[in-house]
TrEMBL record:
Family: Belongs to the UPF0235 family.
Xref: Pfam families: DUF167
Entry-linked SUPFAM superfamilies: YggU-like
InterPro entries according to UniProt: DUF167, YggU-like_sf
Entry protein name: Uncharacterized ACR, YggU family COG1872
Native species: Rodentibacter pneumotropicus
Length: 48
């Protein structure tokens, strides 16, 4: 048995605000304000 948890995330960049929206097609939907340019959206998610 391994430690930790694995989540499937549906990330929507360039949204009006950062928030956890809920479940979207068996994935956790998260909206963020960062644009999907050169990894900015991924970095924003990890640093939030």
């Amino acid at each position: 048995m391994s430690d930790g948890i694995r989540l499937k995330i549906f990330l929507q960049p360039k949204a009006s605000r950062d928030q956890i929206v809920g479940i979207h097609n068996e994935e956790l939907k998260i909206t963020i304000t960062a644009p999907p340019i050169e990894g900015q959206a991924n970095a924003h998610l990890l640093n939030s």
